[in-house]
Sequence to fold (193 residues):
Amino acid sequence: MYGIQQRSHMNSSTWMTTSLGELKSRDDIPNRLIVHQHEERPLRYFGVMPSGQFGYDTSRDQVFPKADFPRVVSALQSSMAMGKGAIATTNLTTIENVWWGVRGGISVTVTWVYLSRASAWEARLPESVQKHVIPESDPSNPQNLPKSGPFENFPHYDDITQTRLTASQANLLADMTGWIISANIDTFRAALT
Fold:
C-alpha cells in the first residue's frame, strides 16, 4: 500500500460535509460526503468514485470495502464536530488489489487526518485574528470559510489560485495543524506505537 499512500499526500482545497444525512444508496456516497466532487483522494481507497472524473486513473486504487467508507467519514465528522480537527482511527480489512500487490483479508488500523477547520483552536486565537479566520456567515458550520481578507478560504486555500501563500497564511496554517496534533496527541501516539 506504500505506493498508494505515497500518491495521496497532496494539499486539499476541499472540505468535508458535517453530516451524512440519509443515504439513498451506496452510489450516493460521494455526492453526500464531499462538497466538491473533484476531491476524490479518500474515496478511491474504498472504490467510491465521484462522477465526472478525468485526468487521473484511480480505478485500481481500491483496497477497502466500499461499505466501510461511511463509517470512516462518520468518525471524521464526529471529531470535526468536537472542534479538534477531523481525525479518526478505524480498523479495516483490506480487499485484494492485484495492481498494488495488496492481499485481501489483512486487518489494518488506519489513522485518518483530513484538513478541516478546528473551532476549539479558532476560539483561542486573538480577536484580531479571529475576525479574519472565522467566517461571518454561519461560523459554527465548519464548511464555511472566510470569503475575503488576508486569510480567504482558510484553511482550504485554493490549490489552483492560491499557490503562493504569504508568511502569515503559511504560519497560521502551520499553527493550526500543530495545535490539532497536540489536541489529538493520544491518537497520534497510539498510531505510532
Remarks:
- The CA atoms of residues 174 and 186 lie 20 Å apart.
- The helical segments are 2-8, 29-33, 41-44, 69-81, 119-124, 127-133, 167-183, 185-192.
